[in-house]
Structures are given as C-alpha cells and as structure tokens.
C-alpha cells in the first residue's frame, strides 16, 4: 500500500512541476514588451493579408491545406498576452475576431490599430504563445514555421540514431512519417507541437524503458500535460501511442517484450495516466480562468466539446454520410485527393495497399511468428480510430490535419509486417 501511495504522489508531483514550468514559461513570454516584437509581428500580419482562412497548397490535395485561420488566432492571442499583467493575460486568453471581416482582419486591427479583443478563448492554454512571442524577437511567422520544421528534423534524427541497432524499426518509422506527409507541418504553426513533443519524448522513452516501466508511466504524465498545454486537438494521441508502440517493438526485437496479456496492463496504465494528465491540465486552466476572470470558464469550454462531438458542419464542409465518415475521411487523407470521402478511391487504394502488405508477409513469413506484438500494436492503433469516433465532427471537418495521427496506425502495420517476416531462407513444414 505504501508503494502505491508513493507512486501516486510521485505522479502528482511530476504533474505539478510540469504545469508550473510550462505556465512559468508562458508568463515569462507574456512579460516581453509588445514593442519588442512589433516589427516582426507586423511582418506576420501582412503574411495573412491576402490569403484564404484555409488554403490548399497543392492542387486537388485536401491534405495539403494550410490552416491560416488557426494561425491568425494564435498570433492574435499571443499579441494580447503582452497587454496588461502577464500572469492574468497568460490565463485570460482572448482575441479580436475581426467581426464580419474575419480573423485575418482581426489580427491586423489588433496589432496595427490596437483593437480590443472581443472573443474569449480561455478553453486552451495556448502554450504556442511562448515560442510565438520569443521567436518574434528575431523573426516573423514564416521563420517560426521553418524553425519548427528544422527542429522536428533534428529530433527525428536523434530518435533514428537511438534506433540504429534496430534498423528495421527505424525504417518503419521513416516510412510512417512519409506516409502522413510530415513535411506539410510547415504549413501551419498549429500542426507542429504534437510532432515536436512526440519526438522530444521518444528518445527519452527509448533510453528510460530499459531502466523500468515506472519511467514510462512518469513520461506519460509529462506527455499528457505538455500536449494539452500546446495543442489544438490536432494529433494529440501520437504523443503516447507512437512512443509506446516503438518501445514495444524494440523489446520484441530484442526478445524481452512478453505476451499481450503481460503488456496490456502497462499500455492501459500509461494510457490512463496520460489521459488523466491531459484532462487535468484543461481542468486546471479552466479553474484558473474562472478564478482570475470571475466568470465560469467551464461553460464555454464544455460547450466547445459538444460542438466537436456533434455540432452542425454543413456551413463548413460537405455533410458526412454516417458516423463512420470521420475515420474514413482520415484514412482518405493518407491517399490524397480533393474530397474528404470518395468511396471508390478509398476502396481501391486501401485494398491495394493491404494486398501489398499481405503479399510480402505471405512470401517471406517467418516460421516463428510474433503474434503477441501484433496484438499490442493493434490495440494501440485502435485508439486512433476511437478518438476519431468520439470527436466525430472535429475529426471529419479537420481531417486534413487530424489524419496525421494515423502515423501510429501506419507504423503498427509496417512494424507488424517487419517483425513477422524473414528474408533468410527458413525451413517450413
């Protein structure tokens, strides 16, 4: 019992320390005078002066959409954090929406003409504002996007280096990154935090997993808090699912993974701790916002959750055909195309891809199949689809970026194949 209490207290302590560090960084960034970032912020304002809120950057490819709408809001909020007391402004997050002129104009009127904010946005932490404000000391929004992409490249390289003794697993990871068009995260600030956090945590997962499962549990707290702090419901699940999948594959390859029934408690424990940390981080924000603003921040936040589950989408996109349209649209984005769901195209590409994988397995299948790891990877991959179904409307409407959470599903497919084939000649009965 004492060990359980100690473990709980350690997890709570890690949660509190992580929140304090991240919020402290946000307060420090809010303390930067707006005049110090004005020059570069004005450059960023004009970047969005003649663009559509959602811009398809490659013809007929919905998955190449740049989300200028979200970025102008992020810049707007980051600018308003520099107004007034930094502790209050870091929590009482708001922006000017431009009214009938739209968010692009709202950003212009906020930065150039000092328009007061009119929209409450306290439901998120807006951790991105840390880097938006700090990096605007030296560059504009285009530079920040480039820095984010380069940072991800460095972090991925570190992960691949740590997987150098497991080249096959490293190759599966690279193919998964290519399959979800990772290079397109340069199109929007919003797309970057989940990828950067995942590959910031992955090398630590790979290092600490050899020292004990309890370290994976601690990292789950940090991952859950961090993604809730920085992310706008993009690909949040990858911060827990992809590291766990890779760790289990490494253990399997090194013959120290065990059975599905042995690994399931670890997967559930890490997933539950990540989920509790994730939700608690939002509750902490809403509680602080309610105290500081003396208004109930929970009402607006929970209303927003309802819209993402079952709100009306007909004003923003073609109506979904069914409850399954959300996961189908996200699968569709992997293969590309101009529409969210095209059943013929989806059937052809999915069938063809699965046939290729099946053919490789059939031709080179190992006489010592590793069925247990396939069950583990399948369980982790299924969580991605559960997320699409739970946040049904959001996953359908924003499939052009939520589909990148499919990286876990794709990695699971490639890794299951790799771990169950042998290119050497084996005797078969």
Brief synopsis:
The chain has helices at residues 2-30, 34-47, 68-80, 86-91, 103-111, 128-135, 141-162, 167-179, 193-208, 213-230, 238-253, 260-293, 297-310, 325-335, 343-364, 371-390, 392-397, 399-402, 407-418, and strands at 54-56, 65-67, 94-95, 119-120. With 429 residues, the protein is mainly α.
Layout of helices and strands:
Layout: H1 2-30, H2 34-47, E1 54-56, E2 65-67, H3 68-80, H4 86-91, E3 94-95, H5 103-111, E4 119-120, H6 128-135, H7 141-162, H8 167-179, H9 193-208, H10 213-230, H11 238-253, H12 260-293, H13 297-310, H14 325-335, H15 343-364, H16 371-390, H17 392-397, H18 399-402, H19 407-418
Antiparallel strand pairs: 1-2, 3-4
Helix pairs in contact: 1-6, 1-10, 2-5, 3-5, 3-6, 7-9, 8-19, 9-10, 9-11, 10-12, 11-12, 11-16, 11-19, 12-16, 14-15, 15-19, 16-19
Account of the 3D structure:
With 429 residues, the protein is an all-alpha fold. It has 19 helices and 4 strands. It has helices at residues 2-30, 34-47, 68-80, 86-91, 103-111, 128-135, 141-162, 167-179, 193-208, 213-230, 238-253, 260-293, 297-310, 325-335, 343-364, 371-390, 392-397, 399-402, 407-418; strands at 54-56, 65-67, 94-95, 119-120. The strands form 2 sheets. Strands 1-2 form a two-stranded antiparallel sheet. A hairpin with an 8-residue loop joins strand 1 (54-56) and strand 2 (65-67). The longest helix has 34 residues, at 260-293. The relative contact order is 0.11. The model has no long low-confidence stretch (mean pLDDT 93).
